[in-house]
Design brief:
Blueprint (H helix, E strand, L loop, with lengths): L1 E5 L8 E6 L6 E6 L7 E5 L13 H11 L2 E5 L11 H14 L7 E6 L1 H15 L7 E5 L11 H4 L9 H12 L21 E7 L5 H13 L4 E6 L14 H18 L6
Parallel strand pairs: 4-5, 4-6, 6-7, 7-8, 8-9
Antiparallel strand pairs: 1-2, 2-3, 3-5
Pfam families: Abhydrolase_3 (PF07859)
Keywords: Hydrolase
Protein name: Alpha/beta hydrolase fold domain-containing protein
């Protein structure tokens, strides 16, 4: 059974949003008109592991899905107030296994923003541990990928990033970890073994506190032989991409994402 409703994003966008009650974890499917049924993005929202939901970000996700002409399955993973680590990771694995049972993994890409980007990155490592064939790649926007929260950019950019801070990161990490060590690659994927992982497409801002998390993850993966693409934007706030298409920077970010999706899946992705 699905609860189907039109997107509220814009009158000229034909995007169907469905709550998939039959999924093993909460899933919101966002399907633009004309999107191919044989390729998909699996999305993990941000919010420091303690807030947010697919429904909260549905408008932004719908706009980006339409721009990429790709259906999105947005995961409502458990938040830290309900269940600390590994609740979110377990839900991510369950969601990926479920989606890969319908669409081959090599036609699926992960997409995550902020904490969701860190979760998506850690999911790649967890799938390798479980010997589950992984996706074609991952699109990570400003991933919170190191819950030790020791990056210099927390201090370098504390006055230019109004959407996240070291204090917020410290509180959110404590709630999510609940005593679990922050050095575990399943919560801090910058510390993981990235050998053999699929392509990573990373985007961040030079003026946000998670700049260095993004760059460290990129360097760690690249040193392990992973195909890594990094796009740095100047002077934009944390998770600026979700304001698409309101600003030139968000349009640039989503355009780059769409181009990389075409390359990842092949030029026949779009109809």
């Amino acid at each position: 059974m699905t609860d189907t409703e039109p997107s509220s994003t814009s009158e000229h966008l034909a995007v169907e949003i469905e709550t998939l009650d039959s999924a093993p974890v909460p899933i919101l499917r966002v399907r633009p008109a004309g999107a191919r049924p044989d390729a998909a993005l699996l999305h993990f929202h941000g919010g420091g592991y303690r807030k947010g939901s697919p429904r909260m970000f549905a408008d932004s996700v719908a706009r980006i899905a339409a721009a990429c002409e790709t259906q999105v399955y947005a995961v409502g993973y458990r938040l830290s107030g309900e269940c600390a680590f590994p609740g979110a990771m377990d839900d991510a694995v369950t969601a990926y296994r479920w989606l890969a049972g319908m669409i081959p993994g090599d036609r699926v890409a992960l997409w995550g923003d902020s904490a969701g980007g860190g979760l998506a990155a850690a999911l790649l490592l967890r799938l390798r541990q479980l010997e589950v064939p992984g996706p074609a790649g991952a699109f990570l926007f400003s991933p919170w990928a190191d819950l030790r929260n020791t990056a210099n950019s927390f201090r370098d950019n504390e006055h230019t990033d109004e959407r996240f801070s070291l204090e917020q990161a410290t509180e959110a990490a404590a709630a999510y970890l609940s005593g679990h060590p922050a050095v575990d690659p399943m919560v801090s994927p910058v510390l993981g073994d990235w050998a053999g992982q699929p392509r990573l497409i990373l985007q961040c801002s030079d003026s946000e506190v998670l700049r260095d998390d993004t760059l460290l993850l990129a360097r760690t993966a690249e040193d392990a032989g992973v195909d890594v693409r990094v796009k740095m934007h100047e002077g934009v706030p944390h998770i600026w991409n979700l304001s698409y298409p309101a600003t030139p920077a968000s349009e640039s970010a989503v355009s780059y994402m769409a181009e990389q999706l075409d390359e990842l899946f092949g030029s026949n992705l779009r109809r």
